[in-house]
Automatic annotation (TrEMBL):
This is Uncharacterized protein. It comes from the Eukaryota.
Amino acid sequence: MGSLFNAKVVPAEDIFLCLFFLLEGEKRFDRLCAMHALLVQANDQLCKSRNLQELTRFTNMLSIRDPTSGCFAWAPTLHAHAILQDIFDGIRGWKRIQAIKSQRYEARVKNRLIPPHAAGPRLR
């Protein structure tokens, strides 16, 4: 699914549907691996502003901790913790990439000059 999203075959909504489906069930290592695989194949477009609310909700649900031990509920072992940390690091990196892209876009728009022949007589 992540590769299909990367190739722009499926929308972000389908990615989040799969992720939340995996979150709903029992907290097992194979489900965490499936979430990791899905996200590794996706790209930073998953962090665009229109998807940010769902991504934040997913991250919040994934980062729930066990009240007694204080460990992540999805990461009771060292291997699971490493995968979980890689998911969080990847999402954090995507958010940085999107912030940089946004800044570059704003700078281009701000510095864009309208050529005199492009504006009508009222705008000159």
